[in-house]
Amino acid sequence: MSRDLPSLRSRFPAAYVLATRWADNDVYGHINNAAYYGLIDTAVNRFMIARAGIDIHAGPLIALVVETGCRYHSALEFPQDIEVALRVERIGRTSVTWNAGLFAAPAAPDDPAAADAHFIHVLVDRNTRRPAPWPDAMRDALAEMIG
Amino acid sequence: MSRDLPSLRSRFPAAYVLATRWADNDVYGHINNAAYYGLIDTAVNRFMIARAGIDIHAGPLIALVVETGCRYHSALEFPQDIEVALRVERIGRTSVTWNAGLFAAPAAPDDPAAADAHFIHVLVDRNTRRPAPWPDAMRDALAEMIG
Amino acid sequence: MSRDLPSLRSRFPAAYVLATRWADNDVYGHINNAAYYGLIDTAVNRFMIARAGIDIHAGPLIALVVETGCRYHSALEFPQDIEVALRVERIGRTSVTWNAGLFAAPAAPDDPAAADAHFIHVLVDRNTRRPAPWPDAMRDALAEMIG
Amino acid sequence: MSRDLPSLRSRFPAAYVLATRWADNDVYGHINNAAYYGLIDTAVNRFMIARAGIDIHAGPLIALVVETGCRYHSALEFPQDIEVALRVERIGRTSVTWNAGLFAAPAAPDDPAAADAHFIHVLVDRNTRRPAPWPDAMRDALAEMIG
Fold it and tell me: N or C: which end of chain D has fewer CB within 10 A?
């Protein structure tokens, strides 16, 4: 990721539009920095459930977060909706690196991100919590998000 | 409110559809009880901003919560969307009592609420935090939500 | 609970001192109403784990919330610590009604609560989610909190 | 920061012990990744208020977050307390880079961090939101945290 320039919305193949909440705004009147991660977590997990077949309640494989990061370019605030745009940067044997851009919704293709984040998931066995290689169907679903 | 029977969706004149978030689910796999209040707060404040003219950043009048309550009839869970349905039960000189029903989205008119809540706002002066009577325009906006 | 008068700290046999967090404060500079429930949930569950033998990860019996409510008497705010004071109001065959008072920490015995809440837990079987009678040891632990 | 090795507790000159909350645990039974940032935000802001003279409600200078990141080495979980240990890595003209280590409390000096994070604050004018140089007293307070 470039350190300085916000990503454009067109850089991401898909997005979830998520409602902001009253409590997301902090004393300074903007979405709190930690709330961004909650939104990204939500978008990535919605993808993993709907498209990659993760069963968060009972499936044998679950995805755990090993690294996250975010650069905040400009403020967002309740009550505006946010587009959490996603792309897969890299698929490893047992991991995936997501890039997420957060945009005031609705975003035009050349809108710059209010924040650029990354989010690394490792697939693990639910019981042993040891890394597990991606099953083909999961890897294929992730591969569609490489942008 | 009846103590025992969940309200039907048709009991409420309007609703906001809000996305659930990964972190709303607790260890037991359901939306945490406290998260319901965050959703209701969000819906009521969206109404107050969009329809009743509350300016949360700089307006002279703000609405503070003096009482809340919720009965949980059945579970909701991420990633399903939730309809937070609202109606005004009572408008006082400086206060308003909201009833909120939470439903798995999309809800049919005769769907029973997963939770029934109430939420009492008092209008106050931003600086003194003392109760202030509703301006006519705010009262009119609230009156449209009496169901 | 009296509708009008805040409970005194001396009304409760025990309390947990919990740190507030930056994000608890909302745009108006006070702890958000929904955050109170998160604090109460925390205190009650800490009691249930430490004193009543609930195993939240694997135990056969878990406690689910069926009703909550809170009246807000005065504001609390980050970064002050909060005493979440607890007492048991009633133990049913499968349920328990908690009263919680929230106080700026450290609280003197005759300090009035900033908020008075109630919280009803029902004990259920983890798998069937059907109500289960309190085992004697759990009931005894709860009985010590009747104030 | 080394990419691979967790920091030791002795690497940080000071720490805040913060209570975890019921809702911090997610479906997988561990503190959610986003909750870590809420804890770090809390610790850094407690320092800024108590030691660096920031007035979050009315002061002319406030600190906004421009970048955060976290690597998760091992799990933490409610109800354990967490030590959020802090050190200042770098003080710029208008910014400060914090390193934070999260440890199960109480931590021994050679305990490895469960998570290593960084957190970059920029000091800005409350009204214009433009960067402002550190007043001497603030810079001195931050300098004491260089580890």
Answer: N
